[in-house]
Amino acid sequence: MSSYVAKRAVQACALLLFVSLVGYAIMSLAPGGPLAVYLHNPQVTPEKIDLLRHQLGLDRPWYLRYAAWLGGLVRGHWGYSYYTGRPVLEMIAERLPATFTLMLSAFILALVLSFPLGVLAATHKYSWGDNLLSLGAFFVWAMPTFWFGLMLQMTLAVRWHLLPVAGIHDLDNNSARDLLRHLAMPALVLGIGSIASWSRYLRSGMLEVLSQDYVRTAYAKGLPARRVVRRHVLRNSLLPIVTIMGLDLHVLFSGAVITESIFGWPGMGRLFLAALNNRDYPLQMAGLMVSAALLIVGNLLADLAYAVLDPRIRYQ
Amino acid sequence: MNGLIATQAAPFARRSGHGLWAMAWRRFRRHRMALGGIGVLAVIAGSAVTAPLITSSDPTTLDPDHSLAPPSREHPLGTDDLGRDELTRVVYGGRISLLVGLTAMLLGSAIGVVMGSAAGYMGGWIDTAIMRFVDLMLSFPAIFLLLILINWTGGRAPVAMMIAYLGLFGWTGLARIVRAEYLTLRAREFVEEARAMGAGVRRIIFRHILPNAMAPILVQAAFAVAGAILAEAALDFLGFGLPPDIPTWGNLLTQAEDYITTNPILAVAPGIVITLTVVAVFFIGDALRDALDVRAR
Amino acid sequence: MTNRIAALGVSFLLLILPVPGSTAGPAPGTLVMVVGDNPDNLNPYLHSLAASSAVYRYTFDSLYTVTTTGEWIPALAVGYTVSPDGLTWTFRLRPGVRWSDGAPFTAADVKFTWQLAANKDVHITYATGFDRIASIDTPDPLTVAYHLKEPYAPFRDQVMGAAIVPQHVLGALSGDQINRAPFNQKPVGTGPFTVSEFVTDDHVTLTANSQYWGKRAKLARIVVRIVPDQNAQVNLLRAGELSVLNVPVVRLDEVKRMPTVEIKRYLEATYALVQLDEYGFLREAAVRRALDFATPKASIIRNVMKGQAEPAASDMVPNGPWADKTLHPRPYDPAQARRLLRDSGFTPGPGGVLSRGGKRLEVPLWTLSGRVNFVQAMQVLAQSWRSIGVYTETHAVSAAALFGQNGPQWDGKDAALIFTWGQGVFPENKINWHSSFIPKDATAPGENDERYSNPEMDRLLEEADRAVDEARRHAIYNRIQELEYRDVPVIFLYWLVDNTAVAKTVQGYDVTTFTTTPPEEWSIR
């Protein structure tokens, strides 16, 4: 197992290197540049812009800049943001707590809700309950995020004053309860898609297993339905959904932009979007690397989970 | 966007050819929701195609002095922020949104099938190269590539570009699924037979194996249509979508955001149409999976 | 299993729902406002976003400052004299002023500010006017004498009103260290408030500065929250979580109905314009004039801006001292526009599109995506231009793409760009209209992106810089505005009207075109 992880780690490094090269090239060759913001600022004179271009090294070809950036990365220097002048690593690090809090809450929420829903739908196939659950799942999946988020905000926070509108904490209140209150809406909005899709995957995975001979044998032996579902069906239907969870980890991380903007959540998504919009190259690259690393880790975790769930799978 | 990837359905080996599709149709028919979905889609697509018959207004002509009018006999859904008839916008919006959804799906599916079958059937270095390329594509957050590439084209040929983006980024999931299918199918007897009888690689891939891998491809394609429609709406919201005067459901929804409290119908109408379309497509996809899966009953 | 989950859910809901009797809203003595972007840099000379100046304005002072009626009053200085040749400006500084960290404020800080603005190793973004300074003398700690290279009329507006930064904090640092100094996030200033906490993309807390030289602030704190979505901002106000908010036009009616807030309406010194990039047909003033006639400004103000804008005839704010009151915007007159184009030799071709010499009159419109009003105005404009036979496509793109070096301004073809220009209340506009500011190529910077070139304009702009005499300066700027009107280098669309909602619990807060009432006088019940 450990040699397998080591092999995957080497592959991951190669992939990250390649991602960084392709990402840097696309980013540098795309139209627009980091200085566009200044071009539109009445206070910034043309000479200043020329000077800035030189100071930031933007007058050198992109491959030289890439080499310098990579050299720094290897030595642990991620560079400085063009806009804040702050170390990129520090800017990313300060976002991690809020980002992971939101991401993991959405993940746990999706886990807790999608399993019972999925099992229920599968064990009552084609009943009205199943159809209703399907309709509900598809409905929320089809709802655009910003629409759902603003609607929740208008009703729960503005009309009924049940929850705070936005932000991560009330002023002068750092209690866990306060955090939970601020977390409730964004976590639901971010996780709702996963709730819907995971419960669908669980349903279809279970339906497939339910029609297998060994399940029918288990029923024939007179085992109680609950026991069959839990011991035989559920366990064997988990493989496909684990893959999706591995991929969704990445989506929850970098795809949270809209949720973060609407709920003023100080996460990575907003940082990354701002970096993209401003062409803040060092920050943009850092965001790309973190997000790619998370995808790789998510896939690795999923593969390892296979081995735990299915004793027939062995990694060398 | 969540990438919905269909679970693998078992391949159906060649059996007495007659009745395969008939059987599938029989099973499909049991899904009342899917039948309803087909009905809903037919109505939505039909009204998009016959738009000029349904409404006499023009979808792009502005009438700013009569903006944000409430529903009336003349304007059943009222008018939008620049005085265009909302019903007309929704009906014509279906043309673009469905066109984007369908063609992006076709493009993505074509790439996904070719890549996936090449990887799965050929194996070896071709497989490695294609799968590492898939990893590479997945490593980029969609937003990174989309935002940069959309700026690159600077708004020229917007609809064709949108289709290209969604198609070019939407094939990786399908490629993985098709590859897995081919990995199991290529060792089957009927493939061995075909090979023994001297069939070429291309013929084996497309004529012999592909029909047996159709079930997961169709299901995935259904989800891809829905995904493309929703992705277009999300891009509109982030300001990277189609030009504002082109009516698409995503544009309509984004433009309505500011009027949620004052003219809620502007947001509700396109919202309902998007949701109905996507839900209908999902139910059809679900039913297809059941219908084409020989083991399920 | 289902029952256990249901129980878990119910207890979770009980945990997060509000305790009866608890109220939302800011703590006592705290005023809460909101900005849409994360402030990038709180050093006034290094920032590039308006969100940054919205924060640092509470922490820094200038020598003189502008009041709500547009008059200059002493701040860090107590008085000044100008030498007869206009080359030496001598300021007497306010005694007893301290920086928020307790260090004394002296003439060395004023001199250092100039040195910072002129430092080529620092990523300076704001230095207008500082390049005219030849040297600075500080004969004693409370006297500063600026020696100029040449007479420079805008000196007062540009340098006297610029923030003074502390020498004792930054003076010993190299240029690169200044670029990356912690000061940029937690500045040390002389202003009424000081930054006590900065949680990026969440909020900045400013607490009353106990060292402040003026009246001690009545508020204990100002909290600036950072929330990007405009609708979420309005929702914050409606839920009572904000004290002050600049309300977007589309939700103004709804906010006006709130019993808890009052609306302050004022003209912002920012105008919306259509920049006409002069490459082909747009090089002809007659064509630009025709497009101006075909621009339905009144309809845009009425229907797109819902009346929250005022007509613009030039680039001088209408309620300021520099506007030429005799100028009025061209009326919307498509017939006149068609006539002008026909007289210029254009003839209608297929689809009614005008052309001349086998070339179609094509003027694509571009604007910023995400700015709802621009996107709407663009569509109205496009329909109107098409109606007179101009072939017009519409594009909404990001700022980086619109103003970037490979953007639409650089493809060598006619184009029209809609955006706003924060001219301010001062008249200096040389960088917009002087031919020396036309960018030489796509990678060269330059603010005269419309490529307007007129020798008379160049001469007037140079004279205006040197005209220290107020009456003469007025005459020059009036002539400049006449040329703007005659030549239409850009189409002036409208001046923005801001509607600031202020909670009725807030007292002493007012805002005009020029500025707000001094923040130390704000209080909250």
TrEMBL record, chain A:
The chain crosses the membrane at residues 12-30, 98-120, 132-152, 179-198, 237-265, 285-309. CDD domains: TM_PBP2. Signal peptide: none annotated. The keyword Transit peptide does not apply. It is a multi-pass membrane protein. Residues 96-302 form the ABC transmembrane type-1 domain. InterPro entries: BPD_transp_1_N, MetI-like, MetI-like_sf. One of its GO terms (biological process) is transmembrane transport. GO terms for cellular component: plasma membrane. It is found in: Cell membrane. The keyword Repeat does not apply. Keywords: Cell membrane, Membrane, Transmembrane, Transmembrane helix, Transport. Pfam families: BPD_transp_1, BPD_transp_1_N. PANTHER family: DIPEPTIDE TRANSPORT SYSTEM PERMEASE PROTEIN DPPB-RELATED. Belongs to the binding-protein-dependent transport system permease family. This is ABC transporter permease.
